[in-house]
Amino acid sequence: MTISEMNFFQRMVYIVQQYGMSLLEGAGTTMAIAIICTLLGCVIGFAVGLVQTIEPHKNSNIVKRAILKVVKFILTAYVEVFRGTPMMLQAAFIYYGTAQVFGINLGMWSAAIIIVSVNTGAYMAETVRGGILSIDPGQREGARAIGMSQFQTMLLVILPQSLRNIMPQIGNNLIINIKDTCVLSIIGTVELFFTFRSISGALYTYFEAATVTMIIYFILTFACSRLLRWIENRMDGPANFDLATGDTLAFTSGLVRYDEKRGGTH
């Protein structure tokens, strides 16, 4: 039986049988790029977001203020440019531009990681900035009041709370990167979408190949979303916790549960 004589489901089975390993390799490349670039993008985003939230000390001289303002302007420009342009054009600009202007021929992995990481970092920078600003100013004031330096306050008090607030967005960026790696096919990166194009072009079974590829994408994103939801729940801690005190004269130990509806404890 030729492929033209097969029905829709038979073609899907044929594609899986003949090109299953190629699809799995493409999915593996997609996941590797998405995970690596999300982690690197988070590092970039945290660095940029932290700098954007720095306020000059009232005793700082004019030179320090000017340098900080210039750095913030450059970082803001970076964020706005990479958030305001499509990643497909960014991929072509970086991959072909570095070769034409600077004579640097980036490999497949190098180009893919640079492109997706820089793009993710721009989105994460705004997320981190918003997460830091969302923390109550009293947290910062309290930390400084007990003698913490500005660095200690940010590292030990502000960032841990901010991380929990922005964790859903980090997971969202990972899922977006899993899907958006398909734009890397424009520079020849052999990921899942590139494999789909190769299969559909060879067999002329665009609908069937697209269906199989969409199922794989859905499995990847759904598994990641469930895993990230589990991590978020673990970061929240238990719903019930025990209050302990070092005062032997006052018995305050006991189970306390946070009442989400009333916004208090009982």
TrEMBL record:
The chain crosses the membrane at residues 31-52, 102-125, 206-228. Keywords: Amino-acid transport, Cell membrane, Membrane, Transmembrane, Transmembrane helix, Transport. It comes from the Bacteria. The keyword Transport applies. Residues 27-228 form the ABC transmembrane type-1 domain. InterPro entries: AA_ABC_transptr_permease_3TM, ArtM/GltK/GlnP/TcyL/YhdX-like, MetI-like, MetI-like_sf. It is found in: Cell inner membrane; Cell membrane. It is a multi-pass membrane protein. GO terms for biological process: amino acid transport. PROSITE patterns: ABC_TM1 (PS50928). NCBIfam families: HEQRo_perm_3TM. Part of the binding-protein-dependent transport system for glutamine; probably responsible for the translocation of the substrate across the membrane. This is Amino acid ABC transporter permease. It comes from Candidatus Aphodenecus pullistercoris. The lineage of its organism: Bacteria, Pseudomonadati, Spirochaetota, Spirochaetia, Spirochaetales.
